[in-house]
Design brief:
- By secondary structure, the protein is of the alpha+beta class.
- 39% of the residues lie in helices and 17% in strands.
- The strands form 10 sheets. Strands 10, 11, 12, 13, 14, 15 and 18 form a 7-stranded mixed β-sheet that branches. Strands 2-1-26-27 form a 4-stranded parallel β-sheet, covered by helices on one side. A 4-stranded antiparallel β-sheet has the order 6-5-9-19.
- Helix 26 runs parallel beside helix 29.
- The longest helix has 22 residues.
- The chain is flat.
- The structure holds ligand ANZ and zinc ion (ZN).
């Protein structure tokens, strides 16, 4: 047997692919297909998760390319980020050198794996030519009011010494932080309003009040939510996670008139103010016994101006002296008039009310809400029940709130109404307006770190915040200085500039952008990577977008995948794009496990992608499971895949030793059909990303080819057609093997440039055909066993009489309730068979709903005929295939798709 050694051929093929530029795609491609794997963070080594991600992407890209598409599959580097800074600090180097060396190593590893990237489009986010466009886009967003600079109570990681976005604050996990991606899938599923840990280092997050830069993603909350309904090509799980994160809430704004402000302050000449609260439980409005404001609420700040107690409390909360979400609060002494009952309610400032949720104010209903109840228990407001269980069952009030819907009580004219009906009716009342709020909050993008894109703003005492003029972009990072804080703060030369407006002394913004900004539009840069007048070419984007298939890990369900949807819309509104959704089809790959745990370097159970050979590894990763499934790495299965590669190779390599014959034989028909069937099946599996099924189809087909060859001399044309198809089945997953096999088959050109094999005769019903042969073989096996015939001499396979197929279709296609037996008997071809027909029809009618489709009479006989050699081969007997006739004693036993069998 001739051995295949991919380590020995891979460099050759890489060289040829490269020399011929086979993966480079023209900008103006006729049939553009954009297949993209999430570009890697530049950690330095490729881990198994990467390889799985890119093996999936590459297999599909190569398959589409065989199908004739012009496939763009680019690769680049998500090169900014804190880990590089930490590594540089620890190793006494600088983040740039560190990152560049990581990139070189990872690029080489990717090339070894044989992925077909268009390297002419490589991009690196830490290149000034790239991040310049982050700055340019920031400025366009700024002009469109999509940027806000505001003081905020923010999440601060004391260990990373930076602010974190909400989505980067997680609930602590048991396992501890791992590498970048391992940490990211801890599941930032809920908004972390209070206690939480840093997604990267799991240090408990603190709250700080800082001036920060935000992208106002909330402007798009409604659209981002609604758009999910149309993303049919995305996994439901990701859509659900996003929907939950955006958190659309239907409810109402209720307006309370707050008095008691008059005369106390000169600045406050407005004696009453309207305060809107947001509620999802308007039905409980009669039970409101207080109003609570968030510490950041305008009115709370106004009161703090003149009330020391309130001022102190607000101060404590913002400086993290008071835990958010607790029951702390302070009475403002103000009163709010209930818009319906006219009652005067106390007004508190309370930490459990969040600044940026709803209106930043709530009506407190202690009887029906947990947080309000807890707050009321610690302060004075009474608990007044206004909803009771419909079935009259008791509640724990006033000790515990009753939070379910029910029937209204103590609610004036609304008594007796169900909660849901009351919510609708109350919307008509003065002071109440229906409202939709979103839990999503604005995207905090500033980071007090070095290794990111400098925010292109200048702070001037005279002019305020002034954008850096476009012609001065990029604002490049100054040389790195090793310091515990933010190196940009230490770069005096860099920091001090002239104000672009007044020419006076001013200072640069020293915050850099969240690196998720870099990855929010990188897929566009690949389309025109060298363009120096704009971030991307708008016309080209119109050709190539949306991305046809995007492959990556589910840990990005919120952050990255929400940000690219936001960016795409913002860019469309800037007139730069004409599409509003970036990705048509999303594939989330599952996790590679080892001993039941996620394989990762931080767990010490990682296997290097090359340990078992690059190509064997990628083929194994694809064959082991559906892309979305987690699966266990087992050495034995890797070995099986290696053997599979060897078998395929030797079938082609040893082809000359196969004996050929001139005249056609029945098994040639069978093989022709099976080639057509397998081409169809494999194509469907590729299209559905079921690479594990591609592998099993390919294995099955290879077995058949070997059997055909061993059965006797082959028909050379048919056999070669089989081998050529086989090669193309496997080439998208094992590209080196594919090229070697193609080459040995004396085929012109390379398999990467070949066409997908064509089907000679349509095989719509290939599933039925295969099943017929399989079940008939099984039946013969059963019979030989039961009757204990060791060496059968003859096997008769007898297909049913033709009228039975007619009867079968009659019943199968009848509507339920039809008198099908009678009407079928009216058909002479059936009716002529008298009692036998009536009896058969009755039997069919009794299981009418369960009748599977079957082949027609002629097709069934042809399929069995062509498969006869398989029976002869397996049982060493003469095989006769024929149609039953009426006087046949086997006729009674033969039904459509269930031939009668007689063995001697
Ligand atoms: C009155 C009420 C009565 C509420 C009741 C609930 C139950 P959920 O509950 O998560 O769907 N809310 C509104 N704005 C808030 C803010 N800025 N900070 C904290 N809480 C706020 O969210 C909706 C509820 O959250 C709202 O409905 C409001 O309390 C509270 F029996 O209003 B509800
Ligand atoms: Zn100025």
């Amino acid at each position: 047997m001739t051995r295949y050694n991919h380590a020995r051929v891979q460099e050759y093929w890489q060289y040829v692919w490269d020399a011929e530029g086979v993966y480079e795609v023209a900008d103006d491609a006729a049939d553009p297909t954009y297949v993209l794997g999430m570009f890697p963070y530049t950690s330095g080594t490729l881990h198994m998760g990467h390889v799985r991600n890119y093996a999936i992407t590459d297999a599909y890209a190569r398959y589409r390319s065989l199908q004739g598409d012009d496939v763009l599959q680019p690769m680049g580097w998500d090169a900014f980020g804190l880990p590089a800074e930490n590594a540089a600090y620890a190793r006494d180097t600088d983040p740039e050198s560190w990152t560049r060396s990581c990139i070189d190593q990872m690029r080489e590893e990717l090339e070894t794996m044989g992925f077909g990237y268009d390297w002419s489009r490589e991009i690196t986010t830490c290149d000034p030519e790239y991040y310049r466009w982050n700055q340019w886009l920031f400025k366009r967003f700024y002009e469109e009011d999509l940027v806000e600079y505001t003081g905020a109570r923010v999440n601060w990681c004391p260990d990373c010494e930076t602010v974190l976005a909400d989505a980067q604050v997680e609930q602590p996990t048991a396992s501890g932080a791992g590498d970048e991606s391992a940490a990211a899938d801890g599941g930032a599923v809920d908004h972390a309003h209070s206690a939480g840990v840093c997604w990267r280092c799991e240090t408990p997050v603190e709250r700080r009040e800082l001036d920060q830069w935000f992208f106002t993603i909330t402007d798009y909350a409604e659209e981002l939510d609604a758009g999910l309904d149309d993303l049919d090509g995305w996994p439901d799980s990701v859509r659900d996670i996003q929907r939950n994160w955006i958190g659309r809430q239907e409810g109402a704004h209720v307006t309370f008139e707050v008095g008691g402000l008059d005369g106390e302050s000169d600045e406050d000449d407005d004696p009453v103010r309207d305060v809107d609260v947001f509620t999802t439980r308007l039905d409980t409005v009669y039970g409101a016994t207080f109003v609570a404001l968030s510490p950041g609420h305008d009115l709370a700040r106004a009161v703090a101006e003149r009330d020391d107690e309130v001022a102190e409390y607000v101060d404590d909360v913002t400086s993290a002296g008071v835990e958010a979400g607790g029951t702390s609060g302070v009475d403002t002494g103000l009163t709010a008039t209930h818009p319906i009952t006219g009652e005067e309610l106390p007004v508190y400032v309370a930490a459990y009310v969040l600044d940026d949720v709803g209106t930043g104010a709530v009506m407190g209903v202690p009887a029906h809400n947990e947080r309000d109840h807890a707050f009321a228990a610690a302060h004075n407001p009474p608990v007044e029940q206004v909803v009771e269980p419909v079935d009259g069952s008791p509640t724990d009030l006033p000790d515990a709130p009753y939070t379910d819907d029910g029937m209204l009580t103590e609610s004036g004219e609304y008594d007796g109404l169900a909660s849901s009906a009351a919510r609708e009716r109350l919307l008509g009342v003065d002071g109440v307006e229906s409202a939709t709020e979103y839990r999503l909050r604005d995207w905090l993008i500033s980071r007090q770190r070095y290794w990111g894109t400098p925010i292109p703003m200048i702070h001037c005492d005279e002019c305020g915040r002034v954008p850096v003029p476009d012609e001065d972009l990029p604002v490049e990072l100054p040389p790195y200085v090793r310091t515990a804080g933010n190196p940009l703060e230490e770069s005096e030369d860099w920091k001090h500039v002239e104000c672009p407006e007044c020419g006076g002394a001013a200072e640069r913004e020293t915050d850099t952008m969240d690196t998720f900004v870099d990855s929010s539009w990188y897929f566009l840069r690949f389309l025109s990577p060298d363009l120096d007048t704009a971030p991307f070419d708008t016309d080209r984007a119109a050709e190539w977008l949306p991305v046809d298939v995007y492959v990556g890990g589910e840990e990005h369900a919120i952050l990255h995948l929400l940000y690219i949807r936001f960016f795409t819309r913002a860019l469309a509104d800037l007139g730069l794009l004409d599409t509003r959704e970036p990705v048509e089809r999303l594939i989330n790959q599952g996790t590679v496990l080892y001993d039941g745990e996620k394989m990762s370097s931080s767990k010490g159970n990682a296997i290097a992608p090359h340990e078992y050979g690059a190509e064997t590894t990628r083929l194994f990763l694809l064959s082991a499971a559906h892309p979305a499934q987690d699966f266990e790495w087992t050495v034995k299965s890797v070995g099986d895949v290696y053997d599979f590669q060897q078998r395929l190779f030797s079938m082609v390599a040893d082809r000359d030793e196969v004996a050929a014959r001139e005249e056609r034989a029945p098994q040639d028909e069978y093989l022709q059909r099976e080639i057509d069937r397998t081409i169809t099946a494999v194509g469907e599996e590729y299209e559905r990303f079921r690479f594990h099924r591609v592998v099993s189809e390919t294995q099955r087909f290879a077995r058949l080819l070997r059997r055909y060859r061993e059965y006797g001399p082959v028909d050379e044309a048919t056999y070669t057609r089989g081998l050529r198809a086989l090669t193309r089945f496997v080439a998208p997953m094992a590209p080196y093997l594919g090229e070697e096999m193609w080459n040995l088959l004396d085929t012109d050109g390379m398999v990467v440039e070949a066409d997908w094999p064509s089907v000679e005769e349509s095989v719509e019903d290939y599933g039925l055909e295969r099943r017929l042969v399989e079940t008939t073989l099984d039946d013969v096996r059963d019979i030989t066993e039961v009757v204990d015939i060791e060496d059968p001499e003859t096997i008769e396979i007898v297909a049913a009489e033709e009228w039975k197929y007619r009867a079968y279709e009659h019943v199968r296609q009848a509507d339920p309730g039809d008198a099908v037996v009678g009407s079928a008997l009216d058909d002479e071809a059936i009716g002529d068979h008298g009692d036998r027909a009536a009896e058969y029809l009755g039997e069919l009618a009794s299981r009418a709903g369960a009748l599977e489709p079957v082949l027609d009479a002629e097709r069934e006989l042809a399929v069995l005929d062509a498969a006869a050699w398989l029976f002869a081969d397996e049982f060493g007997a003469d095989v006769e295939v024929r149609r039953a006739s009426a006087d046949d004693d086997l006729a009674e036993k033969a039904d459509p798709s269930k031939p009668a069998i007689h063995i001697d």
